[in-house]
Design goal:
The chain is of the alpha+beta class. Helix content is about 35%, strand content about 30%. It folds into three domains: about 140 residues, GAF domain (Beta-Lactamase), CATH 3.30.450.40; about 150 residues, Beta-Lactamase, CATH 3.30.450.40; about 170 residues, Phosphatase 2c, domain 1 (4-Layer Sandwich).
Amino acid sequence: MLDALLVRIVEILQVDTAAILLLDEQTNELAARAAHGLEEEVEQGFRLPVGAGFAGRVAEEMRPVFIRDLQPGDAVNPLLYEKKIRSLLGVPLIVEGHLLGVLHVGSLTPRDFATDDTTVLQVVADRVALAIDHARLFESERAARTEAEHALDRLRQLQAVTESALAYMDLADLLETILQRVTAMLQADTAAVLLVNQDGTSLTARAAKGLEEEVERGFTLPIGSGFAGRIANERRPVFLPEVKPGLVVNPLMFEKGVKSLLGVPLIVERRLIGVLHVGSLTPRDFTESDIELLQAAGDRVALAIEHDRLFEQHRVAQMLQRSLLPSELPQPAGLTFSARYLPAAAKRLVGGDWYDVIPLPDGRVGIVIGDVVGHGLEAAILMGALRSALQAYAVQGLSPAETAPLLARFAQTTVNARMATYLYGVIDAERRAFSFVNGSHPSPLVVRPDGTAEIIESPLLPPLGTAVMPGAEETRIELSPGMTLAFTQQLRLGGRGGRRA
């Protein structure tokens, strides 16, 4: 467009040269953008500060400037002297008071540009300025549209690695799917996920695309060593434009011919899970947008791995808890036992609730109910340990008061130390009395045959796991036919022939 305009200007004004210089607002310089008869000016990338030389003066004063006889010092562009330009006329390119640049024409013979010439050139310059402004607006709009389309494409790509449907896959399928999508979106040739081992000092390949042998060989490397180890150690994205020995320790990278690598850490709640990296078989510069996309995929992978780990812990804890709770309660003579176990509404809250009925050798019956603070595998493990310890003390014939300090001491020595509440009592062989100790557990409820109910208050011992060694004091309840005892609405017993809760 500018070249065509200059051709017309040369014809209209019958001049030998014409040039357009545009303002670079960042440097406050004029840069040659188009020329006729001074093409070298554009080819050489000529620039001059606003205020310097002929064109700089036009820009600074923002008015037409005429030089009838060009002399040394009038201009700073040596090309004007080389071309033997004698006369110059220049006008500013202005749109809405904003300077865009300078348009000037020149003659090889001395010439007096008339007022009409200046007017014509200024009119042309105004048209040129509008054309340049419109072209810039169009370019800006096209660039914005291109950027919006690029952003939308990236959004679709992010949705592809974060869609909710992925949550229903098992971990192996999920990792395989994400690696396939990541390599497609980043146009990479390889991808791999390495997970932190239990010792927390090394990484092992868990899934790969294009590097499947890495998983098959069980590739492991220390954190801090090699490319993936560096990512894990620094906990930030790392880009290797060139794969070199020393920077990469996995021989498979060299066997496959990987040239460039990009990797990100897998982190959940500031805890390192592993590393995700992609590679290219040709040298490549990964962009900031590529890094953002890979990190988004890494975050999805990290959450999936953490979810799988928690689910496995929940499953193990649930199996452990169910295996430790009695499937059927014994029914000693003169007593009826029933139990109802309702876990918390959130299925993940499997933990340390336990209850048991323990027939003792002399006809007595032990009853225990307890709750370990917290949930998950550790709570279930501690619950199993406490249940076993209490059974061992009970079958020795120890009374609740004798059992309490032993159980408290045992709780303090366990590895997974947590607090736990419990209530342990014994019904005598004649079924006339129930004696118990309460380790900060909810008190039992007595329901008499006439329907009246009473909560049995008793001295509270400290919860298990505290530093206090209790001297226990038992509470005794007189029993009668038809009486019901309820414990935290989870375990109930009643005399035969009486109301069964």
